[in-house]
Amino acid sequence: MSIGIKKEDAVQIIAGVDKGKTGEVISVIKDEKGDKVVVKGSGLATDKHFVKPRSAQQRGGIIEKERAIDVSNVMVICPSCGKATRIGVSVSTDEKGKKVKTRVCKKCGASLDGRKSVRATKKKASKTAAKKTAAKNSAKESSEN
């Protein structure tokens, strides 16, 4: 069964120590025990490994490496609305008559397959948050008057 999350998707962690942080999917690991994703980002679930130098020129030391996170602890961020969302599937036919499956945002209905960068979705999310706070502030000012 396909898990719906693909490489280079912008995701938000919804459970664990790093709850609320966002990043980009580096890789998807499908396993018998369960599906996992590796998320790129600063401070996201990392493992520290000691690396021994293999030659005189190479340096050894402790290296931080992104750790795989269970897919159930991650939600895709929609590029159009900028919110963490579930993934839906819409089936359509192309010119040749073949069925084509497209991943769709459950909140706004936009396609998730036309990928945007993580930065673009973060900017969109911060703009929507700024609009909400501005609307709340204006509502407070109008109620005070």
What does this structure look like?
- This protein is an alpha+beta fold and 145 residues long.
- The protein has a single domain, classed as Roll (SH3 type barrels).
- Helix content is 19%, strand content 36%.
- It has one helix and ten strands, in the order ββββββββββα.
- It has one helix spanning 118-144; strands at residues 10-13, 22-29, 36-40, 46-51, 61-66, 68-70, 74-77, 84-85, 87-93, 99-105.
- The strands form three sheets. A six-stranded antiparallel β-sheet has the order 6-3-2-1-7-8, with helices on one face.
- The radius of gyration is 20 Å and the shape is flat.
- It starts with 9 loop residues before the first strand and ends with a helix.
- The mean pLDDT is 82.
Sequence-ordered SSE layout with sheet pairings:
Elements: E1 10-13, E2 22-29, E3 36-40, E4 46-51, E5 61-66, E6 68-70, E7 74-77, E8 84-85, E9 87-93, E10 99-105, H1 118-144
Antiparallel strand pairs: 1-2, 1-7, 2-3, 3-6, 4-5, 7-8, 9-10
Tally of contiguous helical segments: 1
Distance between the termini: 57 Å
Q: Give the class-level CATH name.
A: Mainly Beta
How many domains would you count in the coordinates? 1
Shape: flat
Radius of gyration: 20 Å
Number of strands: 10
